[in-house]
Design brief:
240 residues, alpha+beta, Elongation Factor Tu (Ef-tu), domain 3, YaeB-like fold, six-stranded antiparallel barrel, four-stranded mixed beta sheet, 4 helices, 12 strands, 32% strand, globular
């Protein structure tokens, strides 16, 4: 048996999620979540990426970073089960794994060269900014889509929250230049609709006066939850 396997990152991800809190729990849940997979613009990388633009989707194999890992624990509590029931880590997609490796299928919009880098522009990911990438593979529908697959307790997507905006937050949104008001609105609303609160809080109204905070793109987003509605109460620019 091989005692140890070592990988080196082939690229890094520039994501619209600079912090862990708020990142979708699965890829594909927030279609507006944008990211660039950034390679050095070497001749070797140009050759290695040749033809990838002919595929609509790709698999991204990456390393969960920005996370504290202690001793391996074989049982985890998935948010989908309310954070109250334990199942084996291999029966989940939890980042708290013996090897902190993730795999996500994302939509590929294009490959561009910019500032001595090659960038795969993707959407629908669940990536933290700065994520190391260890491999890219094309998504092949005839092989990867399994119609008869069963998923136990993860059969259906969780119910979504509605999203509303305060007048104050709307005023800041309208003046957004980067990434643009429409794009930022879609990103924030799709993210909040997934209810990014901890599993034990999901499906509940927030306590009176309780508000939540996350950072999306270059903005701090403050919101409350009441009667199934996430209300954006404040939006503030943050320098990154």
């Amino acid at each position: 048996m091989v005692a140890e396997v070592t990988f080196s990152p082939i690229a890094y991800i520039q994501s619209c999620y600079p912090e862990r809190f708020g990142i979708p729990r699965q890829a594909g849940l927030v279609a507006s979540a944008y990211a660039d997979i950034v390679f050095e613009a070497t001749e070797e990388n140009k050759l290695a990426l040749r033809g990838i633009e002919e595929f609509s989707h790709v698999w991204v194999i990456f390393v969960f970073h920005g996370q504290s890992y202690g001793d391996f624990k074989p049982l985890v509590r998935p948010p989908r089960l309310g954070g109250n029931k334990s199942v084996g880590v291999y029966a989940t997609r939890s980042p708290n794994r013996p090897n902190a490796i993730g795999m996500s299928a994302v939509k590929l919009f294009g490959v561009i060269e910019k500032k001595r880098t090659l960038r795969l522009q993707v959407q629908g990911g669940d990536f933290l900014d700065g994520t190391p990438v260890i491999d890219i593979k094309p998504y092949v529908p005839y092989a990867d889509a399994i119609e008869s697959a069963q998923a136990a307790w993860a059969v259906e997507q969780s119910s979504l929250l509605s999203v509303s905006w305060s007048d104050e937050a709307e005023a800041v949104l309208i003046d957004c230049v980067e990434p643009g008001a429409k794009k930022l609105r879609c990103l924030i609303e799709e993210t909040l609709a997934q209810d990014p609160r901890p599993g034990y809080e999901r499906g509940k109204d927030g306590r009176e006066g309780q508000r939540w905070h996350m950072q999306v793109s270059n903005y701090s987003v403050f919101w409350t939850v009441e009667k199934g509605v996430a209300k954006v109460i404040k939006l503030a620019w943050v320098e990154r």
